[in-house]
């Protein structure tokens, strides 16, 4: 079978490259960056991926120089581009302007991977920059802030690009990757059916005589995973446990159980654990601690239920619908930076994985590939296209706080930001933090709220948000204030995971989901987190919500959804019936802001 090797330097986009190549019907395989050249000789081509490291960092990952002598095409992307430039004597320096977002790519030589590629938008996410290309390379594309945005050594079929062709935001990204695959001489004949056949065989080999006990949520990942294991082992050899944590959407516990049973999953047990979860999380505000508690409690309850059912742990494996973003964002690969700990990657789970007691047939897939597997397995459309919902549920959409958390000299910083805005809007930093991802690394920084903006122009707001997060390091999200119009006062209030806060968030979330269903835009929106913030605006004594609808295909990158004005007005009007002091709209793409806030 023809294969492309994607060398993994720990970047958030490493597996996304693999995903994109597979979607072009060529089998791509993620391999360690230091794989010996002798083991890569049979690959049709090599792609050097991104990384949270800089090439000058101590301990930064590299590759076996022998791959440069294999005589096969090589494409360096972002960090891979910088590393290849360095290997050939080029100059790489920290960029004066760090680029996170869209940039205008100007093609200087439309050959090689840029054959028939016009000027257009390209997605940047980098700090370091190639100043001069390596020996034998010439510049083939530039942006306003990056002269060496694309380089090529045509004699050796070595190419380097600073931008990310694997993300949907790069207009000609698929064509650029396809050009490289054509240079590699690929046949474009790989399919998802072959993946299913291979995975079914691997499940049987892993399980041998054991059965699989699996946590299910009703989401696409766990449902597809359950179906795939059932296909491999038979109904009698898999048992599902649905745990209602108390952090589901309004009335969703009963709906999920009914829906799963309608698929024929009668080998299913349900357990209401809301009391245990609220007690375990009482007084907890740190998002990482929240995720650890939630993940560990899942395992404790699983053990409690298996004991109650009289299941012998030596006869069972633990199944999970883990997909690749869960792994990569939890620092699950050698050089990856931890963005957040997913509930299925807490320490107890890692120990079970190391012991060979966990089976995860989707762990190398992205959401779009999972959906494709679901369709091939015959799952109904409503399950395959259900909006993703985090395993910890609304617990990670309900931010907690003990006291205001301001950046250093926040009043001075706000002044600088407002000077930069030059009257387009006014800005206030919020006294809380949220997680983000910039340059393949985790950030935990402050949201910035814009108010008095005037008539909404989403394209202009997108540019403003990108400029602000690029220029001001203390900020990793930008919000548009939909209510109120003016900020006289903003402060954080004390708030933990409590039934009353979750009930308020459930009501807000239901409004969001009902409005998009009413206007038939559910499939235009890939995911719609509604987030409760412990932030009081103008001293009303109430909290605030953030509306975070996004567009994506694979979760590693995303655009905020540019909602029609009439629909947005209806959403705000309905949301205003709740006791809320502020309503915000998240206008941050990913990167720099993750889809979820925690």
List keywords for this structure.
single chain, 598 residues, alpha/beta, Rossmann fold, 3 domains, nine-stranded mixed β-sheet, seven-stranded mixed β-sheet, 25 strands, 31% helix, globular
Structure notes:
The protein is an alpha/beta fold. It folds into three domains: about 5-185, Rossmann fold (3-Layer(aba) Sandwich), CATH 3.40.50; about 190-395, Rossmann fold (3-Layer(aba) Sandwich); about 410-585, no CATH class. About 30% of the residues lie in helices and about 25% in strands. The strands form five sheets. It has a nine-stranded mixed sheet with strand order 2-1-3-4-9-8-7-5-6, sandwiched between helices. α15 (about 500-520) packs antiparallel against α16. The chain is globular and about 65 Å long. The two termini are about 40 Å apart. Residues about 335-345 have low confidence and may be disordered.
CATH superfamily of the largest domain: HUPs
Radius of gyration: 24 Å
- Give the domain tally: 3
Shape: globular
CATH fold description of the largest domain: Rossmann fold
- Return the CATH architecture of the largest domain: 3-Layer(aba) Sandwich
Widest sheet: strand ordering: 2-1-3-4-9-8-7-5-6
Largest sheet: 9 strands, mixed
Strand content: 15-25%
Treating each run of at least 4 consecutive H or I residues as one helix, how many helices? 16
Q: If you average the pLDDT, what whole number results? A: 89
Number of strands: 25
List the quaternary state of the chains: single chain
Structural class of the secondary elements? alpha/beta
């Amino acid at each position: 079978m023809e294969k492309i090797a994607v060398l993994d330097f720990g970047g958030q986009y490493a597996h996304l490259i693999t995903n994109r190549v597979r979607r072009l019907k060529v089998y791509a395989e993620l391999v360690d960056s230091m794989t010996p050249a002798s083991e890569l000789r049979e690959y049709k081509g090599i792609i050097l991926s991104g990384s949270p490291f800089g090439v000058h960092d101590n301990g930064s990952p590299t590759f076996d120089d022998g791959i440069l002598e294999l005589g096969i095409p090589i494409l360096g992307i972002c960090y891979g581009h910088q590393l290849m430039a360095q290997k050939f004597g080029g100059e790489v320096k920290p960029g004066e302007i760090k680029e996170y977002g869209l940039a205008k790519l100007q093609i200087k030589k439309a050959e090689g991977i840029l054959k028939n590629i016009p000027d257009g938008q390209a997605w940047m996410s980098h700090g370091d920059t190639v100043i001069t290309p390596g020996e034998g390379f010439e510049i083939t594309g530039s942006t306003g802030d990056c002269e060496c945005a694309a380089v090529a050594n045509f004699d050796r079929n070595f190419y380097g690009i600073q931008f990310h062709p694997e993300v949907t935001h790069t207009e000609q990204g698929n064509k650029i990757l396809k050009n490289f695959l054509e240079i590699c001489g690929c046949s474009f004949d790989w399919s998802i059916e072959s993946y299913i056949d291979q995975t079914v065989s691997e499940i049987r080999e892993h399980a041998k005589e054991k059965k699989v006990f699996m946590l299910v949520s009703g989401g696409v990942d766990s449902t597809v995973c359950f179906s795939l294991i059932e296909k491999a082992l038979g109904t009698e050899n898999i048992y599902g446990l649905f745990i209602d944590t108390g952090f589901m959407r309004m009335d969703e516990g009963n709906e999920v159980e009914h829906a799963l049973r309608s698929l024929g999953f009668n080998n299913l047990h349900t357990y209401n654990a809301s009391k245990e979860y609220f007690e375990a999380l009482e007084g907890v505000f740190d998002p990482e601690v929240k995720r650890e508690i939630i993940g560990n409690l899942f395992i404790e309850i699983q053990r409690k239920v298996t004991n109650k059912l009289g299941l012998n742990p030596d006869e069972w494996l633990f199944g999970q619908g883990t997909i690749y973003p869960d792994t990569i964002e939890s620092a699950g690969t050698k050089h990856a930076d931890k963005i957040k700990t997913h509930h299925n990657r807490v320490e107890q789970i890692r120990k079970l994985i190391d012991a060979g007691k966990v089976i995860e047939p989707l762990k190398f897939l992205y959401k779009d590939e999972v959906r494709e597997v679901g369709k091939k397995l015959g799952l109904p459309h409503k399950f395959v296209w259900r909006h993703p919902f985090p395993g910890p549920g609304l617990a990670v959409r309900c931010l907690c706080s003990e006291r205001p958390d301001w950046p250093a000299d926040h009043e001075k910083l706000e002044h600088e930001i407002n000077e930069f805005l030059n009257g387009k809007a006014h800005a206030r930093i919020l006294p809380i933090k949220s997680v983000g991802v910039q340059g393949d690394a985790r950030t935990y920084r402050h949201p910035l709220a814009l108010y008095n903006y005037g008539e909404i122009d989403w394209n202009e707001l997108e540019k403003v948000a990108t400029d602000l997060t690029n220029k001001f390091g203390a900020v990793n999200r930008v919000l548009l204030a939909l209510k109120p119009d003016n900020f006289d006062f903003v402060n954080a209030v004390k708030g933990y995971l409590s039934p009353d806060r979750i009930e308020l968030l459930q009501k807000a979330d239901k409004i969001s989901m009902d409005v998009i269903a009413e206007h038939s835009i559910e499939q235009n929106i890939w995911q719609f987190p509604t987030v409760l913030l412990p932030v009081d605006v103008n001293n009303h004594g109430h909290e605030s919500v953030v509306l975070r609808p996004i567009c994506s295909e694979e979760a590693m990158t995303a655009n905020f959804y540019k909602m029609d004005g009439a629909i947005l007005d209806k959403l705000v009007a309905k949301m205003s019936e709740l006791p809320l002091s502020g309503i915000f709209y998240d206008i941050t793409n990913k990167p720099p802001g993750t889809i979820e806030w925690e």
